[in-house]
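Subgroup meeting minutes
Present: P.N., E.W., G.H.
Scribe: E.W.

1. P.N. recapped why we're keeping a running log of single-chain structure predictions: easier to compare across weeks, and new members can see raw inputs and outputs side by side.
2. G.H. added today's entry (286 aa).
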Amino acid sequence: MLARVRAVASRATAGRAATVAGAAVLTVGLGADAVTVPGVLATVTTAGIGLATNIKILKAPRSARDTAIGVYLAPHTGACVLLVAERLAPDTGTSLLVQTGGAALWTAATWYLRPGRLARQLVDEAVAQELAALDAAAEAVLEETEEPPAPVYDTPQAQWWAENIATEDGIAPGTVLLEHRQVTEECLALVIGSATRGKAVPLGKDFTSDLSAFLDLPEDRIEVGPVPGRGAGVRLLVLGVRPQPAEPEQAATDDDQAVWAAIAATAMPGVELIETTTYTMQKELT
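Output recorded in log:
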């Protein structure tokens, strides 16, 4: 960092010195034509050496290199033009006054604008713009080439639910299929949950009717309810005809009661028949 500061200071000192030297040559050239040719040669040599040592300007981006070189050479070109004009101008008071004004204007403009520093600033801005453009292009390429990872589903049914029911504009966005079971041929039980932990299952008021239209299933065969022992983060969805619980078997038929009464009257008086079980007897026992 210190070396860079020293280099900047050295260039600034050299530029100021060159400006003072150019002003001196122009002032002497007002009255001495012999200064014209050496002054032009010295100015051209100074411009060439200065430009050759400014690697930043020579290696600038193409969009700014020509402009930066033109800005850097502008004071040298102006000094040469003024020296030649002083040589060719007539020796009159008005002409001398105009020449003096031109030399003073050149000195003030060069001292104030510092074309060498201005040229390097143009290069720095061009480089910064090109870097920003490259970064933007690289980000755009990455956005186009990088595809988001495909979600992984535990079952094909869960994938079907996510792609058809739980889409953003679907019937139940924000839900996931946790479990499914085919209870009977006419009944399917689904356990659905919220995609956001700690939130209730987001089922809208039109969920049943929309699902009925989507599946072409009567609304009375769609039932949504709680999962026993679980919170509002899961819901039980039953599709189809829910199976009815089997009726308990009759403890004993009338015929069984009559047969047992005949047996108990002689073999086991006082014993009552409560239940009977029928099974196929093995051949070995018949």
